[in-house]
Amino acid sequence: MGELHYLDNASTAFPKPDRVHDAMSSFYRKLGVNPGRSGYDLAMEAGLVVDGTRRALNAFFNNPARDHNRLVFAANASDALNILIQGLVQRGDHVISTQLEHNSVLRPLYMLEQAGVIETDLVPFDGAGFVDPDEIARRLRPSTRLVVVNHGSNVLGTVQPVAQIGRLCRERGVLFAIDSAQTAGVVPIDMEAMRIDAVAFTGHKSLLGPTGVGGLAVGPDLPLRSTRWGGTGVKSAVRAHLEEFPHRCEIGTLNTLGIAGLMAGQEWLRDRGQAAIRAHEMELTALLLDGLREIDGLTCYCAGADDRHLPVLSCNLAGIDAAEVGTILDAQYDIAVRAGLHCAPLVHERLGTTPTGAVRFSIGPFNTRQDVELAARAMGEIGARFPAR
Description:
This protein is 39% helix and 15% strand. By secondary structure, the chain is an alpha/beta fold. Helix 7 links the parallel strand 6 (175-179) and strand 7.
């Protein structure tokens, strides 16, 4: 295997900044105890790392709930979305989402609908990959409890107009949440300005932390119930699970190693500058898109390299399945991509790319011009070898 050209950052950012590796190694060697569960110095110091990360992320999302304890940790965005959805909806509620969603939203909604708990509406996206806020407004009912929207599509790279959606939800008294798995760390998210009641996030993508850690930023007026119960390390004699945040949504020992790595990722983002990182990634996206558009028989889906897009491009070559293209890119060019349905089946249904999906290139802060130029050249060479059948 030669030098890896990693273009699968929408799955997980790789590599991580050295600061993340160093922080995690140092934390576990020096502070690898249960945070805050005991009164000795080491436990208190570990607890301060967790507390500091809560504060940093609550400020990062500009949560109008200034109480940083309403930033709760979870295993990832899917876990956080389950905490959110199952902790909010009640029998008879109506939930609006979109056809852009990842299965982390689609499956919880489907399971609750199949159980007869809720009714759902999934708003379609237009030919450019965007949801019209007016289409959401038209579907609002007196029973609508929640609108939950994928902020940035992991297939199309389109960034949805969440500020507009937030405004109309606030005007109608409907709770509004976003799945920020693809946007947190690359697109600014301001809960207060955008009128967002909850942000589900994961740590291992553009927040540049490790896998296995994510969370939910809970706004001040979100009536979130506990859906899981267990140890919290405090008030152990109380039989009922605690109502105060963060314990309301957290059980057991936290992934303190992951939280320490997530804090280091936050610090790296702060020092490097989110705007500078995005400018670099979108410059490479534009270069890759220009190269792909010159290839005969190649289709890009809803692609763009402007401020309404992420550094994510999905495409197909006529005459060859996406999975085969992915295998050739890996085996012959040392290029890592994601081929398939990307856990977003309704997107591919609308695109007409089921059942094989598409080839997705996703760019991160450590990619180079060489990576994307090679990717465009490789796709051209593969297309020439497999003319449309």
